[in-house]
């Protein structure tokens, strides 16, 4: 099957958006001390700067599953695809805890090991490889059961302190596990994200339809997801551990309504983010040609962009700290604060975060163009892993 431009376009869009969140994480003046989703301290601008980036991780994971299906259909070789998925999954896990974690924290001692989206995709690839001979429709059902049902897990009465709970909990919900003077943080519990990947794998069957036919399906599914989100969120009983409440004014009440849980991705987090993704997929081919060209450049080389953008942002973060008067001995890399000293004000206002975000994305455009062209012209085995 030919490569689907709409997938690269949508993936490129969310990769551009993703950089905004990481610039904010590393360089915003309040990012170390305050959460942008804490209604007691956030502002509407800050909250929605964070909320729009919710689109990124579920889109990455969903489309990773979709791409596996399309690749399998193209090669029609289960054994080769399974072998590649397992190898690639192990490679992504290794990459997460080495290159990516270092790019995020710049901590040569690796005092914080963070299991985030690259590891979640790697874990998903390994399991998907093992499950590959199960029909796509059945895998999609399993994925939807996980998405719709994993919020029930806290209701299961495991005995407090039981081994079963201790072993299973990090696979379903965030966990912090200290060992020695280091800490392992399960930021992306793998089972809920696996549900999204399996759903994306099954969903890829729609790409076998004619464009206009699948466009109608994408629109119906996207709008249906958004409508179901509004209904379930309004009922305020199930789908997210954080219920919405009436706030001091209409704006903050709306923020409370939209304040859904990413860690782990709740049902009410998945419905609007995946619903918007489906609408983007429906209309991607109709976007302006210049816009498509730019987004495809990023969307064709997602891992290359992902790794490189962390290093660019972190170098800019260090430059910011030096310009603000800090010296190397004051920087703290082992504390998980990206080099920024604790208890001392540092960072930039939100408006400048947007300027730096734009500059980072623009700076990475040419390298992505170059690597995309290199990858297309060369068939080295290692290019399949980048």
Could you describe the 3D structure shown?
This protein has 386 residues and is mostly helical. Strands 1-3-2 form a three-stranded mixed β-sheet. The protein has helices at residues 5-27, 44-51, 56-75, 78-105, 117-130, 136-149, 163-172, 190-203, 211-235, 250-258, 267-283, 289-299, 302-323, 350-377; strands spanning 112-115, 175-179, 182-186. Helix 4 runs antiparallel to helix 5 (117-130) and helix 13 runs antiparallel to helix 14. The chain has one domain. Strand 2 and strand 3 (182-186) form a beta hairpin.
Following the backbone from N to C, one meets helices and strands in this order, namely HHHHEHHHEEHHHHHHH
- Portion in helices: 55-70%
Most strands sheet: 3 strands, mixed
Q: Return Rg in Å.
A: 21 Å
Output mean pLDDT: 92
Number of domains: 1
End-to-end distance: 21 Å
Tertiary shape: globular
Strand line-up across the major sheet: 1-3-2
